[in-house]
Amino acid sequence: MKVFINGKLFDKKEAKISVFDHGLLYGDGIFEGIRSYNCLVFKLKEHIERLFESAHTLMLDIPYTKSQIKKAIIDTLRANQLRDAYIRVVVTRGEGDLGLDPRECKGRETFIIITDKIALYPKEYYQKGLEIITVPTIRNLPEALNPQIKSLNYLNNILAKIEAINAGFAEAVMLDSLGYVAECTGDNIFIVRKRNIYTPPQCMGTLRGITRDTVLEIAKRLKMPVHEHVITRHELYISDECFLTGTAAEIAPVVKIDGRVIGKGKPGPITKLLMREFRKLTQKDGVRYSL
Ligand code: PXG
To answer: Could you tell me what percentage of the chain is helix, strand and coil, using 3-state DSSP and rounding each to the nearest 5?
Structure first.
């Protein structure tokens, strides 16, 4: 495997950065998780835009233009001969000294692209649906560390993931400080009730997921009523269908939440329709590259 670091491709074994990198020392950096399907990079523009938005708020200078990043991603995919890939773009504050002050990172920011084969969730998750739980750790407050910044500091989500795993579940629903549903540890959440589709508004302590936005677009195109609206736990429990969205998960049906069966206890018809439409889109939309 070849890894892109600051303009050069390295073999996996040689792909190393400094222990003084503030990405490691403080989680001071940002990332994007992107996918390509059959030589089409899905929603590349949107991912690069979100990367620049995260960087803007953190006052992190990305040492490349958007089009240079696009080219670097495609060059790395080609170097690895990957048709279907998971692409991780990481920008850290770079090498500094042992102090928080970002001004001490005098070198360039570290820019990394790792591409690999995709590690999908087990197939049965998609056929049978997931059982998930709400966990005690609340999602970061937007006033503290806004979840819309896709930063290298994922401890908030990792704590929630640990709580789910300890309880024997694969995924956690995180609530906000008022007890409303925010999102899962690496996915956004949707419910369907009486043929209406609901997802929490992006201001409610959630990442503005690109898969989330894609699902909203698909649903609107199919003339399904969609609502970006606060969701309570009660509304989760009484929903007819529930599903999660994310670049890694795509659309994953949920059939049980906190022991309550959702709908008929199997992936619902609207979820399955959206899964099919999403799959179609990934096969035809995107930035094409040749190997
Ligand atoms: N919420 C959170 C907290 C996320 O981290 C999403 C929602 C979904 O966003 P997208 O834009 O992907 O629809 C994410 C995305 C990984 C990985 O390797 C994590 C994500 C995406 C891809 C890979 O852990 N998180």
So the answer is: 30, 30, 40
